[in-house]
Amino acid sequence: MGIKNQTQVVEFVLLGFSGIPNGYIYLFLPFLAIYLVTVLGNLTICIMIQLDSSLHTPMYYFLSHLSCLDICISSVTVPQILVNFLRQQQTISYNECMAQMFFLVSFTGAEGALLAVMAYDRYAAICKPLHYSRLMNTKVCTVLAFAAWVWGFLDSVLQTALSTRLDFCGVNQIHHIFCDLPPLMKMACNDVHINEVADHMGGVFVGGGPFVFIVFSYVFILSSILKFRSTIGKRKAFSTCASHLTVVFIYYGNALLNYQGPSAGYSLATGILVSVMFCVITPVLNPIIYSLRNKEVKGALKKAVESWRPSGHHHSQS
User: Fold this and answer.
1) Which of 33, 71, 132, 245 is the most buried (most CB within 10 A)?
2) pLDDT band at 219; cut points 50, 70, 90
3) Structural domain tally of the chain?
4) Residues 288-313 pLDDT 10s
5) Has residue 313 been placed in a domain?
6) Using H for helix, E for strand and C for coil, what is the string for the chain?
7) Does residue 317 belong to any structural domain of this protein?
C-alpha cells in the first residue's frame, strides 16, 4: 500500500502542444477567437429561438438543445487549454482530468442521441405530416430532449467510474491536449480489458445506436420525398434535411476518428488535429450551418437586428 501511495498520480502533463513551447501565444488568440464565436453563435441561436414565436416548433426546440450542447462540449475543453497557454504549463490535476472526461463523454454522447431525435422529427414531419402535431407535441419533445441528455450521462457515469480504477504507476504524461478515455487507457499500467470492453460497447450502443436510427430514418424520408409530385415540395423537404445531415456527417465523422481511430497508427499531431476538429471546430460550425442554410433562422436574425437598432433607423417594411 505504501508503494502505491508514492506513485499515486495527482497531476497529469498534457503533451499535446509540447512540440511548440514558444508558440503558445500564437495558439492562444485563434483558440480564444473560435471559443468566443462558438459561445456567441450558439447563444444567439438559443436566444432567437426563445424570442421569435415563429421558431417555436419541435425542429428549433431541438436545435436550441444542440446549440446548448455545443457550448458545453467546447467549454469542457477549450477554457482549460487557454489557461494552460497563458500559464505556459500544460498540466491538469487528477480530479480535473476525471471531471473533464466525465463531462466530455456525457455531452458528446448526448449530442449523438439528440441528432437521432432530430432525425425522428424530420421523419415525422415528412413521412407523417397529418399526425405531426400529435407525434411531436410539447410533452413528447421535452421527454425526447431530456432522454438525449440522460443517454450521454449514463454512458459517462460507467466510463468514468471504470477509469477511476486505472493505475498509472507514477506515469503522468498524457499524449493528448485534454483528458479523454483512449489516451488514459494507453497510459494505465494495470489490466484495462474491462475498460476497453466498456469503451467499445459504449461506442457501439451510445454512438452507433443513434447513428443506425438516423440512417433508417433517412431511408424512409428519402423514399417519401421521392414520391412527392411537386418539385418545389421535394426541394423544400430536402432543404429542411440538408442542415441536419451536414451536422450528422461532421459529428459522426469526427467522433469515429476521435474514439474509434486506429489505436497505434496515429501520430500525436494527427490525434491533436482530430481532437481540435471534434471539440473546438465542430461546435462552431453547427450554428453557421443552420443559419446559412435556413431561411427562417436568417429571417429571425434579421428581425432581431432590426428591432435592436435605434428607433431613428427603423425601416417600415418587415
Assistant:
1) 71
2) very high
3) 1
4) 887 766 677 777 777 777 776 665 45
5) no
6) CHHHHHCCCCEEEECCCCCCCCCHHHHHHHHHHHHHHHHHHHHHHHHHHHHCHHHCCHHHHHHHHHHHHHHHHHHHHHHHHHHHHHHCCCEEEHHHHHHHHHHHHHHHHHHHHHHHHHHHHHHHHHHCHHHHHHHCCHHHHHHHHHHHHHHHHHHHHHHHHHHCCCCCCCCCEECCCCCCHHHHHHHCCCCCHHHHHHHHHHHHHHHHHHHHHHHHHHHHHHHHHHHCCCHHHHHHHHHHHHHHHHHHHHHHHHHHHHHCCCCCCCCHHHHHHHHHHHHHHHHHHHHHHHHHHCHHHHHHHHHHHHHHCCHHHCCCCC
7) no
- Percent of the chain exceeding pLDDT 70 equals 88
Q: Which residue has the cell 480530479?
A: 95
The DSSP call for residue 82 is: H
Asked if residue 314 is part of any domain, the answer here is no
Residue 249 sits in a domain of what CATH number? 1.20.1070.10
* CA 92 to chain CA mean position, Å: 22
Cell of 218: 433517412
More confident residue, 244 or 256: 244
